[in-house]
Amino acid sequence: MAREGTEEDDTAPAGHPGRGVLTLVSTPIGNLGDFSDRAAATLAEADLILCEDTRTSARLLTARGIATRTEPLHDHNEQQRIPALIGMLERGRRIAVISDAGTPLLSDPGFRLARAAITAGIAMTAVPGPNAAITALTLSGLPPHPFMFSGFLPPRPAARREVLARLRAAEQAGLSATLIWHEAPHRLGEMLADLADIFGTDRPAAVARELTKRFEEVRRGPVGTLAAWYAENRARGEITVLLGPPAEDDTGADDLDDRLRAALATLSVKDAASLVAGAINLPRRTVYARALELARETGPEAADP
């Protein structure tokens, strides 16, 4: 019997006879030396490589002498391409999916195709490898688990703050995890300022930039300090932002209840929720639901909105 980790174990799932295999292949996030031999062999043996951008992937494939045919798979064409791709897999073709950098499906196309392959009973496997979020987490000095990776935040300020406010509300309901996002360089300063405003300036944070590349940098510190730094110093390259979990003595939930009880002493549930939501940067619906609970504790009359 082969032991775990030996070459005999290094086989892809056989799948159904006559059917192909869909393989999700991780690619370097910057340093071409991080491309594994298994990943290169998988791409070389595939019948088709689906790329987020064929021009970006051409550099990697050329460097390893891989001549497999490539086609684009991105957010704008993935859904319409699925029937034909599933048909190819059902006829026994081997298809590999790669992103411009890192692990496919994470902030990249491919999820809808993977779900369709599972539904169709197509064998699916992965060649693991580089991932910017995990690499940044290990270098950040922040608690490694639990963590929550949320891809990119909305680019518009109002939508971004709404998403962050919901996460802060979740923390007040008990969530405690290191939070991870990717961000574009030109939005980094504003994003960090929103983090400081909503989560507090003293929360530990880190900004990881150009991971595995020549100018790799990880800047650590309170999120308010990082926000001030990047307000004056424009960042460049690929960026991952991490925010540490709330302190064990975080009083956010108690503060919300105290503010609501004070407001409910003179205001309706609706008006109290609006006042407090605006003061502590939480979604009005979330605050209203908590205000309604507190009002009901004092009697049905107080709960009347």
Automatic annotation (TrEMBL):
Residues 22-226 form the Tetrapyrrole methylase domain. The keyword Metal-binding does not apply. It is found in: Cytoplasm. This is Ribosomal RNA small subunit methyltransferase I. Belongs to the methyltransferase superfamily. RsmI family. The gene is rsmI. It holds the Pfam family TP_methylase. It catalyses: cytidine(1402) in 16S rRNA + S-adenosyl-L-methionine = 2'-O-methylcytidine(1402) in 16S rRNA + S-adenosyl-L-homocysteine + H(+). Keywords: Cytoplasm, Methyltransferase, rRNA processing, S-adenosyl-L-methionine, Transferase. Catalyzes the 2'-O-methylation of the ribose of cytidine 1402 (C1402) in 16S rRNA. Residues 1-20 are annotated as: Disordered. Residues 251-294 form the RsmI HTH domain. Its EC number is 2.1.1.198. Residues 1-11 have a biased composition (Acidic residues). PANTHER family: RIBOSOMAL RNA SMALL SUBUNIT METHYLTRANSFERASE I. GO terms for molecular function: rRNA (cytosine-2'-O-)-methyltransferase activity. GO terms for cellular component: cytoplasm.
